[in-house]
């Protein structure tokens, strides 16, 4: 890691779980296949992007019709996988950095971005020890439920957020519905690779609010990401499965 400090994260604040990184690293080759092991992420990504675009326009006062609402700004996607969100951020005009715990994902992301003609600064490693600076936009989608130390992870995200910047997070809610549908059904039926989700690590909106407040951050009203046979995955007032939120400095 060319821009990492010489210090490794200490055990009390390391956020990467090696087994989680290995799990997702094994999926790297199929990450961009909409019918492969990451098919659910391909269905989820447009929903997240819809929320994100509205949040960007609202926070930065952009033109909703503009093609590059992040022009002149920088963005970082944390837990980027092989770049499903980082590439749209770059297309929206941001100078984009993306970080992941799995080296295999970073390799796949770099290859795909190069093929798409996109310049994205991909990094592998622990966010807190990478010397990356601060960003106008910080995103971490479906990541916090996989980290070893949630307060340390939130603190690292807060350190990357520029004054006046915007953070957007999404994560599964810890409810009976998410246990049934996202773990038992989705993994049991092969819609999501087994071992992807650990229900006990899911975080409720109230818990996330308190974690963010502890880092001096303010959480906006969460919006649910729900599923129905008619609509598929969609933004909703129902927070039972998954939710997405904006975050700003207090």
Please provide a brief summary of the model.
This protein is of the alpha/beta class. It contains 7 helices and 9 strands. It has a single domain, classed as Vaccinia Virus protein VP39 (Rossmann fold, 3-Layer(aba) Sandwich), CATH 3.40.50.
Task: Present the secondary structure layout.
Elements: H1 18-25, H2 39-60, E1 74-78, H3 86-91, E2 95-100, H4 103-115, E3 120-124, E4 135-141, H5 150-160, E5 161-172, H6 176-188, H7 205-214, E6 217-219, E7 223-228, E8 232-236, E9 242-249
Parallel strand pairs: 1-2, 1-4, 2-3, 4-5
Antiparallel strand pairs: 5-9, 6-9, 7-8, 7-9
How would you characterize the overall build of this protein?
Mean pLDDT is 89; it is low at 1-12. The chain has helices at residues 18-25, 39-60, 86-91, 103-115, 150-160, 176-188, 205-214, and strands spanning 74-78, 95-100, 120-124, 135-141, 161-172, 217-219, 223-228, 232-236, 242-249. It has one domain: Rossmann fold, CATH 3.40.50.150. With 250 residues, the protein is an alpha/beta fold. The chain starts with 17 loop residues before the first helix and ends with a strand.
Number of strands: 9
Q: So what's the overall shape?
A: globular
Any idea what the radius of gyration is?
17 Å
CATH superfamily: Vaccinia Virus protein VP39
Supply the number of structural domains.
1
Give helix and strand order, one letter per element, not per position.
HHEHEHEEHEHHEEEE
Overall pLDDT level: 89
In percent, how much strand structure appears in the residues? 15-25%
Per CATH, the class reads: Alpha Beta
| CATH domain topology | Rossmann fold
The secondary structure category is alpha/beta
CATH architecture: 3-Layer(aba) Sandwich
Instruction: State the helical fraction.
Output: 25-40%
Question: How does the major sheet shape up?
Answer: 9 strands, mixed
Task: Name the poorly predicted regions.
Answer: 1-12
Specify the number of helices: 7
Question: What distance lies between the first and last C-alpha atoms, to the nearest angstrom?
Answer: 32 Å
């Amino acid at each position: 890691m060319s821009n990492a400090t010489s210090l490794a994260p200490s055990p009390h604040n390391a956020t990467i779980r090696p087994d989680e990184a290995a799990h997702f690293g094994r999926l790297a080759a199929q990450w961009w296949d909409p019918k492969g092991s990451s098919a659910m992420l391909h269905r989820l990504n447009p929903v997240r992007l819809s929320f994100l675009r509205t949040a960007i326009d609202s926070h930065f006062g952009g033109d909703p019709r503009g093609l590059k609402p992040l022009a002149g700004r920088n963005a970082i996607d944390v837990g980027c996988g092989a770049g499903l969100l980082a590439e749209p951020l770059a297309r929206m005009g941001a100078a984009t950095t993306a970080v992941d715990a799995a080296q295999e994902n970073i390799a796949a992301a770099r290859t795909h971005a190069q093929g798409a003609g996109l310049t994205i600064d991909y990094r592998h490693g622990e966010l807190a020890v990478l010397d990356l600076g601060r960003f106008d936009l910080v995103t971490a989608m479906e990541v916090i439920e996989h980290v070893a130390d949630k307060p340390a992870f939130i603190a690292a995200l807060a350190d990357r957020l520029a004054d006046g910047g915007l953070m957007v997070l999404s994560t599964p809610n810890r409810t009976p519905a998410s246990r049934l549908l996202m773990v038992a059904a989705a993994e049991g039926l092969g819609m999501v690779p087994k071992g992807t989700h650990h229900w006990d690590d899911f975080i409720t909106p109230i818990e996330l609010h308190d974690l963010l407040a502890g880092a001096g951050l303010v959480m906006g009203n969460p919006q649910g990401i729900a599923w129905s046979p008619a609509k598929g995955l969609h933004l909703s007032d129902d927070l039972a499965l998954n939710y997405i939120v904006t975050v700003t400095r207090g």
